[in-house]
Structures are given as C-alpha cells and as structure tokens.
Amino acid sequence: MEGGNSPNLQLQQLPLATAAVSVQPHTDSFSYKENLIGALLAIFGHLVISIALNLQKYSHIRLAGSKDPRAYFKTKTWWCGLFLLVLGELGVFSSYAFAPLSLIVPLSAVSVVASAIIGIIFIKEKWKPKDFLRRYVLSFVGCGLAIVGTYLLITFGPNSHEKMTGENITRHLVSWPFLLYMLVEIILFCLLLYFYKEKNANYIVVILLLVALLGSMTVVTVKAVAGMIVVSIQGNLQLDYPIFYIMLVCMVATATFQATFLAQASQLYDSSQIASVGYILSTTAAVSAGATFYLDFTGEDVLHICMFALGCLIAFLGVFLITRNRKKAVPFEPYISMDAMPGMQNMHDKGIAVQPDLKASFSYGALENNDNMPEIYTPATLPIVQEQHGSKGGSAPPYRVLEHSKKE
C-alpha cells in the first residue's frame, strides 16, 4: 500500500513545487524593478535640486553685480530655480514609496557630486591645466568615489518591499525593536539638547547629531506618507486611517526643528563641514531607523549587507573629499592696513597695521592729516573734534600717529 501510493504523492507534489519555484524569480525581478525606479527617482530629484539651487544662487549674484533695481523674486531665473526645486523635492519624496528607506537615504550624495561638478564647470577663473588638476584633484577623486559608492548601494541595496498600508505601519510602530530604538533615541536626544542649551556645547558634532536624530524620524514618516499616498492612488484608499495624519504631523514637525538646528549650525561653522559631517551622521541614523522600523535588511545575506556597508563608506569618503576642497570664507577686516593703501608709504614699524581710534576719528589707517600735506594724499576722515598739529617755528614730519592719554 505504501509503495503504491508514494508515486502518486510525488506526482501530486511536483506541480506545487514547480509553481513555488516559478513565483520566486518573478518576485525578485519585481522588487529589483521597484528598487531601480526608486533609485532613479532619487537620483533625478537630487540632480534637479542641485541645478535649482545653483540657478537661484546665480540669480542673486547677477542682481548683486548689476544696477538692476528689481528684487530677486521678480526675475525669471529665480522662478525657474524654484520650479525645479519643487520638482526635485517631489521626485525625492516619491522615491520613498518604491524603494527601501536604507537605499534612498545614502543617494543624497548625488546632490553633493552634482554641486561640485556644476561649480567646476561654471568657475570664472581661467587656470592652466596643471594648476586646475592640482586645485581640483580632491574633487575629482571624491566624485569618483561617490559614484562608485552609489553603484554599490543600488546593486547591493535591500530588497524588502511591502505595501504601506495603515495596518502595516501601525504594526511596525508598536513593534518592540522600534520601541527600543525610539527609547534610546529620545534619551540621546535629550542629553544632547541639555548639553547644547544648558552647557553651551556648540560643537558641530552635537548640533548635527541633533539634526540626524530628527532626520531619521523625518525619513521614516516621509516613507509612510508617500507609500500610503501611492497605495491610495492605486485604488486602496489609506487616507482614512488616523496613522496617516499622525505621520504627516510628525513629518512636518521634525522637518521644521531639523531646519532650525541646521540654521544654527550654519551660523557657527562652514557649509563644507556641515555638508560632510551632516551627510555621514544623517545617513547612519536614517539607515538604522529604516532597519529597525521597516526591517529593510530582513532576509538579506551577509555578503549583500557587507557590500552595502562598503558602498556607504566609499560614499562617505567621497563626500568628505569633495567638501574638503572647498574654499573657506575670508572674514571681513574692519580697517585697511597702511601698506595696502595706494600712494601711501609704510611709516609704521615692522608693517604692523594701525587700527583707528574711535575716540579721535574714523580715519582709515588711523593717521591724522597734517596741514603741510597735499590734499591728494590725505586719508578720508570723519573727525569728531578738529585738532591742529604742527608748530610754526620748526618743520613737522608729514605724518604723526596720535597717542591719546588715559584721561581722554
């Protein structure tokens, strides 16, 4: 009996096993297709955002260098940049609905690469080939590394896909890995905020860690909102779930506070430092949030995870080299050194610049004019008290530095 029934059982189980094998490649190809769509949307969005920001910057510079009395918002260039900026943000926003969060976030390195290339193309100075390569060798190396890292991210990115329905998001929100992650993040955020506000710890790492922690929650809510909108467009309405509006409010709130801390960091530190350190910290925090909330790396083998981490590290190094090569802003000097004034001799000792004394006059160079000097060589002054120098009997030197007593 058992021997006669076993062939029938094997024949009955064969079609089921064949069907299971035929479904798996279809699922993998579909997930890879969604990954590719999301990655292309993110790359397109970041490229358009870089072009838009440079267009708006060009509009401001052109108005500042001309006698055009119009405001910047009355120029076509600025409005074109604004339109491209909105288009790019929509592209990045929609990319979260197709690809995993851990894949989309590191692709923001594309905007840094695009800004570097646009800056090199539109520079006004003319350099010799040797000087050009020596000056921008770090930018070229950084762009190459960022492109290699982006390729590794897209190739070995996670393939976890699920529909962003209200039930799925609610289930992820109350899962114990994400609750534990949120507890650690809230404690760390409160400690950093205490040291930043109460102890005046205005370090760039402290401020950008606050930005990164807020940004990790921003991208989690952005993916939820974008995914529920796409599912609703496909026919399964999700906008009647309360979780959609909770995520929408959290997205707006975290993005607002994130912009506030970024504005404070930009007042204290150079933009190149903020770009490199902020990209590294924000990407690390966002990938960690995606791995705990959406379980992006569930089912991935060790090789894919290691290659994805290698792509992130290469992209980090590329962004660091690109921003490392940027010029630092030269601070404005409130006075002019005597040796920098045309037609004037350097009369002070050892080339040390003499600052103006506010109690006497506002003369650039802090030297008082003398009656014996021609008017063409006298510096422009705004005297508070008019004083006469020199004696009638003897010859006075052409210049004399005022020395005020402590009583004055």
TrEMBL record:
Keywords in alphabetical order: Membrane, Transmembrane, Transmembrane helix
Primary localization class, coarse? membrane
Q: Which domain of life is it from?
A: Eukaryota
Q: How does it sit in the membrane?
A: Multi-pass membrane protein
Q: Name one Pfam family in it.
A: Mg_trans_NIPA
What PANTHER family does the database record attribute to this sequence?
A: NIPA-LIKE PROTEIN 3, PTHR12570
What family does this belong to?
Belongs to the NIPA family.
Protein name per its UniProtKB record: NPAL3 protein
Gene name? Answer: Nipal3
